[in-house]
């Protein structure tokens, strides 16, 4: 579960990590009031669960109330790479002397926690890490030994907070670790962790977290009262919401080929297969969604899946890719037929079965003799057919309404 910057900041404040004064606002008028109470210059930051908001124009500086209101009105309706801005955070503008990057995350390979840090933080941190990997320090926290202030001091020394106070850096590292472990986080990132203050006055300089990126481990929600205070108020995609109510893992994408499969890995490869086939065919057809039906796909589940996928008006056809393990392809076939009766759709359904009762399932489909069911024998062939059919329907200007 990812948090917005303003929510992650709350955890920082509670642990005593220095953050600039900040107020969250949801309308331009609220933003104006908040900016007035913070004072000028004031930073206005669009709250979206994605990085690089600065480069996308969702982080701006206002010098008076009118400008604050105007900038908030610009930023609030924005989306940053598909992620809707849910509000704005008004912050006291800091004078930045230097930007560091520090994160703590779970390292599944070494089975411990990684501290990644560089003195070359800021918005270009990924480019710098690619061009100069030696600038990025990767240190480890042993989950059994834990992490003390002395450990944090050694670590701060190793990272090299050249222009900053090592003791303060160590305090912040230790507090980040406390946020990370006490909140059952999988990521706590500060970029920039900035050295701020008056460049001519050494005593005014200190470290401050000017951004927060925190991901919590959803499996631990029960230990934190469900993290109700971090509930997302942004309206969810209606199809995603419907899928969630049925316990289905559905993610809406932007393409034209609906994809239904069993098992997250198989569905992911199906998405790649569709996109790859379209590329080979020289079209810009893309998968329209991710939908994992999980194990035991009953007729009702299949009907609900097809109904959700086909309710996306961009969808031209559907690729059903099932590898029968516990799931019997015969049952899936019956489910598809019942679902098609219920939904009364004529959208092409391209099907590939393998594994448990695949042969029986395919025979059932063949015997049903439905004009819109197309059976292919391999995943690649099915993906290619789905991409080709979607492209031809798009070329004809067919909408799904006409295919129903
Ligand atoms: P991100 O682009 O989504 O990571 O958003 P950030 O919160 O990191 O903001 C982007 C950039 O805006 C930062 O890297 C800073 O360089 C700049 N910025 C953020 N807050 C301030 C501030 O208080 N003062 C100044 N001068 N720049 C800031
Ligand atoms: Mn940032």
Automatic annotation (TrEMBL):
It catalyses: succinate + ATP + CoA = succinyl-CoA + ADP + phosphate; GTP + succinate + CoA = succinyl-CoA + GDP + phosphate. Substrate binds at residues 262, 325-327. One of its GO terms (molecular function) is magnesium ion binding. Gene3D superfamilies: ATP-grasp fold, A domain (3.30.1490.20), ATP-grasp fold, B domain (3.30.470.20), Succinyl-CoA synthetase domains (3.40.50.261). Keywords: ATP-binding, Ligase, Magnesium, Metal-binding, Nucleotide-binding, Tricarboxylic acid cycle. GO terms for cellular component: cytosol; succinate-CoA ligase complex. Its EC number is 6.2.1.5. Residues 9-216 form the ATP-grasp domain. Binds 1 Mg(2+) ion per subunit. Its cofactor is Mg(2+). Pathway: Carbohydrate metabolism; tricarboxylic acid cycle; succinate from succinyl-CoA (ligase route): step 1/1. Mg(2+) binds at residues 191, 211. ATP binds at residues 45, 94, 99. GO terms for biological process: succinyl-CoA metabolic process; tricarboxylic acid cycle. Heterotetramer of two alpha and two beta subunits. PANTHER family: SUCCINATE--COA LIGASE [GDP-FORMING] SUBUNIT BETA, MITOCHONDRIAL, SUCCINYL-COA SYNTHETASE BETA CHAIN. Belongs to the succinate/malate CoA ligase beta subunit family. Succinyl-CoA synthetase functions in the citric acid cycle (TCA), coupling the hydrolysis of succinyl-CoA to the synthesis of either ATP or GTP and thus represents the only step of substrate-level phosphorylation in the TCA. The beta subunit provides nucleotide specificity of the enzyme and binds the substrate succinate, while the binding sites for coenzyme A and phosphate are found in the alpha subunit. This is Succinate--CoA ligase [ADP-forming] subunit beta. It comes from Pseudoscardovia suis.
